[in-house]
């Protein structure tokens, strides 16, 4: 059976990530080789972005976030795909988080929901800190749990409070959508409490 082809080049951290993606798709990848991005790799990513487009698909950890930010700064316009920490967890408790550990379904879902960073003046009003506080996404005892739920539903990756506000703005996610997701969270919690 023929594999689905992905037209964009996918940037991953290592060869195991490439191997995992190539088990599922006909895809070309660029491997960063870890968090020490060098200019040669960034040049490759720039070239790929100019010719085919690029999707950054890094691990949901600190290193993956740093790589993602460095690429976004150096190569504007790249797309981003996120996988949840839960989906990226290996069966061994001591293993690291990684794209290579994710199921085919989780990888397909992440790549079906890519985001492109949009200029902040593009129309969606910035979500302020007070709105995030009102929704329980900052400062409360279950704020991290709420942020994780929101990130999983919107496919924007694990984040702390500061990162969440930035990501919502970068990807132009309106406050109405955030409120919808958090209403679903409240409903799910109410059902669990019964």
Please, how many domains? 2
Helix vs. strand class: alpha/beta
Secondary-structure element order, N to C: EEHEEHEHEHEHHHH
What percentage of the residues does DSSP assign to strands (E)? 5-15%
CATH architecture heading of the largest domain = 3-Layer(aba) Sandwich
CATH topology heading of the largest domain: Dna Topoisomerase Vi A Subunit, Chain: A, domain 2
CA(first)-CA(last) distance: 47 Å
Estimate the mean pLDDT confidence. Answer: 88
- Oligomeric state: single chain
Strand arrangement, largest sheet? 4-2-5-6-7
Task: Report the strand count.
Answer: 7
User: In percent, how helical is the residue content?
Assistant: 40-55%
List unreliable stretches of 5+ residues.
Answer: none
CATH class of the largest domain: Alpha Beta
- The gyration radius over C-alpha positions equals 17 Å
- Largest pleated sheet: 5 strands, mixed
Shape label: globular
Number of helical segments? Answer: 8
Pick out its properties.
194 residues, 7 strands, alpha/beta, 2 domains, Dna Topoisomerase Vi A Subunit, Chain: A, domain 2, 8 helices, globular
Describe this structure in words.
This protein is 47% helix and 9% strand. The protein has helices at 15-24, 39-51, 62-74, 104-112, 129-134, 143-154, 161-170, 175-193, and strands spanning 4-5, 9-12, 25-26, 29-31, 54-56, 79-80, 115-116. Strand 5, helix 3 (62-74) and strand 6 (79-80) form a beta-alpha-beta unit. The chain is globular, with a radius of gyration of 17 Å. The termini are far apart. The relative contact order is 0.12.
């Amino acid at each position: 059976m023929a594999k689905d082809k992905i037209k964009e080049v996918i940037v991953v951290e290592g060869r195991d990530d490439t191997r995992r993606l190539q088990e599922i798709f006909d895809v070309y990848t660029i491997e960063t080789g870890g968090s020490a991005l060098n200019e040669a790799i960034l040049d490759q990513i720039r070239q790929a972005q100019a010719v085919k487009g690029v999707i950054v698909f890094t691990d949901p950890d600190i290193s993956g976030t740093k790589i993602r930010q460095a690429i976004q700064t150096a190569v504007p316009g790249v797309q981003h795909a996120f996988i949840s920490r839960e989906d990226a967890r290996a069966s061994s408790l001591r293993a690291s988080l990684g794209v290579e550990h994710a199921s085919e379904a989780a990888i397909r879902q992440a790549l079906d929901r890519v985001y492109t960073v949009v200029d902040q003046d593009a129309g969606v009003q910035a979500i302020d800190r007070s709105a995030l506080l009102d929704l329980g996404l900052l400062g409360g005892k279950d704020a991290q749990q709420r942020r994780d739920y929101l990130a999983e539903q919107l496919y924007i990756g694990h984040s702390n409070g500061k990162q969440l506000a930035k990501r919502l703005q970068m990807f132009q996610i309106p406050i109405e959508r955030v409120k919808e997701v958090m209403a679903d969270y409240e409903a799910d919690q109410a059902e669990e409490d019964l």
